[in-house]
């Protein structure tokens, strides 16, 4: 068996997302499955080292995974030729310097989003990696969720006809901490620490919309801070300086209209924490993270408005659940495998840091739209 060993610097994996999705459910899972099989006698095997500022947290990760190497000295592994890939899951404000250092050291770069707070910085990171000749990628995990993949199958079979509009609902109630402890970190609600719903989620909506429905042409967004005070991890009240909700409308180049409500202040009465209703001339779908419900033109009811009588139509009855026709792997792991194949085999990988910059651009222009209370066009970001 020929093995292509890929040394990976994993920086920032002591956080929730880095630990659970990237270390345990992706890289460690790949190691435990015996690597990425690329032929009967050939495989790719990750060889990671964990990097962070807290040695105790790093050591704890080695006790629950098959990864045993760790360090608090980033420079030492950046200068080690054994490691050819740098992965960054740090908080957003720490990302620019580390990715720049990695590219200058000749490391291939894979990182979480948002890649920066400002479009100028995010695009600069793309240019730095491009000019250094290193492969680069940004995490765009939602594209490989089972629900979104099922939607893609429906679209491939022309279930929708012409897609007209998309209505996305995302979020849940994040407790403020005054009585019930918060279930998200406090920095998410401080602008000075890189927090904010617009910065967080419009980066996601950019790649979801661009890839599933069409390129975004312009944005109208209203950002709001509904809860002015929360309680941090030490039990101390703090002022919320970042937006906790975003009400956004996107006009696409193909004429499709997408509207996404994103909020940490909403109680869920829908099928999942994220749902998208996609309406087309032939059919509609409710797309969740894992499940999809569909209604075709032929079984669409014909309601008549009459508020004086009990509604005779059960509007839930006419929808059917898309059956399980495929087996889906963890979405983060799927993209990790794609990126490692890109590094070793030079297979195509279009989810570069340019795509990351596009996400940051939409978030930044969304905030500008909110400040100015107007539609904002999206300039083209050139490769």
Index terms:
single chain; 383 residues; alpha/beta; Rossmann fold; Dihydrodipicolinate Reductase, domain 2; 7-stranded mixed β-sheet; 18 strands; 31% helix
Number of domains in the coordinates?
2
User: What separation lies between the terminal Cα atoms?
Assistant: 38 Å
Q: Are there runs of 5+ residues with pLDDT below 50, and where?
A: none
Biggest β-sheet strands, sense, barrel: 9 strands, mixed
Q: Mind telling me the CATH class of the largest domain?
A: Alpha Beta
How much helix is in the residues?
Answer: 25-40%
Q: What is the subunit arrangement here?
A: single chain
Give the class from helix and strand content and strand pairing.
alpha/beta
Strands, count:
18
Q: Please compute the radius of gyration using only Cα atoms.
A: 22 Å
Spatial sequence of strands, sheet with the most strands: 17-16-15-14-8-13-12-9-18
Annotated CATH architecture of the largest domain: 2-Layer Sandwich
Report the portion of residues in β strands. Answer: 25-35%
**Outline:** globular
Number of separate helices: 9
Order of helices and strands: EHEEHEHEHEHEHEHEEEEEEEEEHHE
Q: What name is given to the CATH topology of the largest domain?
A: Dihydrodipicolinate Reductase, domain 2
Overall average residue pLDDT:
97
Instruction: Give the CATH superfamily of the largest domain.
Output: Dihydrodipicolinate Reductase, domain 2
